[in-house]
């Protein structure tokens, strides 16, 4: 880190300086049983089964067999990457517009991410953009439901079945979102979720993975939580493989369980408000909100996003976003850093210099990362503005105020 950089901040600390006329997630609304569950942990001297209670409740809410609680979303995805047990140099086709947490587990296991481009006009990939990325070394497709917009999963699953690939979901921004009547995270082999404080189901931190696959669930617990350790009679604990200690703490489970009890109506409110805000923004010339596909029954929106037509305005996208924030929309800004092929210079350098696993073997070809990797996504993000402070506290008057603010800034800068 050079002298001009500062460490990234997360959660409440990242939003502490935001000011505006619209609601923000913090302070979070806490479930009414939060203190009760925390008290149980204290009174029982850490002997209660709070983690197991949360896992059962979350699995039941998704009508799925297994939920494995983790300290966060990045560990949940890392556990899945380790549990799949692919070989170093194997390829995972992954969404390009996401967060580092999506790919950290892949890199730790020495898999090679292959970023599929996004579909035009959106932040998500599609079966059409995935197919050209599938090679003989591809083993899985990791889809990201960015902003809470669920990818069109049926065609993706059909494509994966054709090539014998596993599909799994980064649903960290889409908790309790619905696709054709089915919940995000249940649309493939496995799904991962985030309960970090700023997320839709905000706890202190936390995450989990869910699956109906018995074998995968057992491997996830062995490798991800038991450090790959097994008990050998007459010897004791033996570590049969590289493993991790990604276990959710009891107090985090207490808060997460309480938040689970109130999240469904909050998601329904987010869905109503984002659809209203989308409709209002769509009426502003030169401004296009993220489209909500018909197959999304419930949009568990974590951030609101829009694009501006650069030909329609005298100002740059950055200036437009800065004016939105100055006018009272907290957290408004561009999101170019979401393009992972461009935001991971260390990965590009490893590929360029053929550092393991980009050496041959285990890699089977040369790789390159940068803005040119996903040109559609790169071009889209140049004029994309979002605010990650969208939350269930919005009411119709807030949507009207936000839309009027966007309209005012648009008219002031219109060519």
Q: What does this 3D model show about the protein?
A:
There is one protein chain. This protein is an alpha/beta fold. It has a domain at 34-256: Type I PLP-dependent aspartate aminotransferase-like (Major domain) (Aspartate Aminotransferase, domain 2). Helix content is 37%, strand content 16%. It contains 14 helices and 16 strands. The strands form four sheets. A seven-stranded mixed beta sheet has the order 1-9-8-5-4-2-3, sandwiched between helices. Helix 5 links the parallel strand 2 and strand 3 (112-115). The radius of gyration is 22 Å and the shape is globular. The two termini are 40 Å apart. The mean pLDDT is 96.
Key terms for this structure?
single chain; 415 residues; 7-stranded mixed sheet; 4-stranded antiparallel sheet
Q: What's a concise summary of this model?
A:
The chain has 14 helices and 16 strands. It has about 425 residues and is α/β, with parallel strands linked by helices. It has a domain at about 35-255: Aspartate Aminotransferase, domain 2, CATH 3.40.640.10.
